[in-house]
Write the structure tokens for this entry.
Amino acid sequence: MTLTASPGPTTGPDRAGRREWTALGVLMLPLLLVSMDVSVLYFAIPAIAADLRPGATQQLWILDMYGFVLAGLLVTMGALGDRVGRRRLLLLGAALFGVASGAAAYAHTPGALIGARALLGVAGACLMPSTLALIRTLFRDAAQRAKAVTLWTAVMASGISLGPVVSGALLEHFWWGSVFLVNLPAMLLLLVLAPLLLPESKPASGGGRFDLVSAGLSLAALLPLIHGVKELAQDGWAPLPALGVTFGLFLALVFARRQARLAHPMVDPGLLRTPAYGGSLLVNLLAMAATVGYAVFLTQYLQSVLGQSPLEAALWSLVPTGGVLLAAPVAAVLAGRIDRAYVMGGGLLVSAAGFGWLAAVDRATPFWAVLVGSAVYASGLVSAMTLANELALGAALPERAGSAAAVMEAGQELGGALGMALLGSLGAVVYTAAVPATAPAAARETLGGALGGSPAVLDAARTAFVDSMGAAAAGAALLMLIAAGSAVRLLRRRA
């Protein structure tokens, strides 16, 4: 099957019909579950700790192993799908995701659960780029593809928010393994319906030989880079994670140089230099840096400052999703009428305004005002990301859609880690400066360290934390302004 790029809107047989839209619904199943698994363990960890009794390091790896493996293998699996077929890789990922979910649910040791989480990461890396790349095949009409990518982005964002809610609801009635078993019916349905509804898509030439050295380099570069950035964000400066970041950047440079010399590279350097793709990649990275970096503060604000339970906080965190579901389709319609660079820039300015609103929050600010600000920034940000994903996917040749989608998703993972590091460090500096010098050392480091202190110390720590959250929001607003300027400058007239 030979695929050719579609330059713009089409009519007639190239327009998707009921079968393609039904297939899109099937593709949303794995996407929702893969994105949910990033956050589904937030409520389950106490029950897992009581049952399996993992050490502190093991508990950290139970939480993080899935995300690290997923991020590290995205580029490899995207390129592999371009060669062996995206539907085949999707089915393989669905089968592996089901098996790994069962293994995780019935794990009897911390090591077994960590191993199952690693397998889930491998399966997720098979599924995520395949879903986006198959959209490039199913929807050759640019207007229809824009709607499909809008739905893809909304489902991905919703899955991350739904993870804690689903796990909290399940744990009210079942044991902790139920948060994994919920994956099985959806994966079984995907295995039955995908062969009936999804066409196989790969270039007739096979896409060239798969380069194992490049695959190893991409994994070896991304894992220490993302892990090191997250460690620096959580624990501050330390030689080992800093060395990991440096080593990851070095291997990324080696990987890039190797791609430039290969006849069939995993990642096309020419595509990265294309403004439509490279600019979209940059915008998505900055957007994820802002949203993930700020979300850490918002979650702690709901629980440690307002005193909400974890499930209550998770339910309230779904409120901004309503703004996203309304704004993303509006942005897609506007992008069909005016230059999408201006629509993206406008969405990012809206997001900057939402973060600016949140930068002014203090202890007296009513809760509804925080929710409004969160809905404003989320709606503008996700609208821009939706258009960036669609523009990047349209810039890639269909036979390169898998690797193009994977690089975009890997960039989002890296952006999230950078956001935690940058905004987390900014917030930490403001918090430490705002806590009274007479407070205990633990309270001067984190708000969690003040929870067991006196009422006066706790009140001062909460006030300092709200100040630090405002600083993080101001930093996120600055990132959105930079992203808006980049979108207009790099993506204007690139549709």
Q: What stands out?
A: Residues 321 and 471 are 23 Å apart (CA to CA). The chain has a mean pLDDT of 80. The longest helix spans residues 455-491. DSSP finds 19 helices and no strands in the chain.
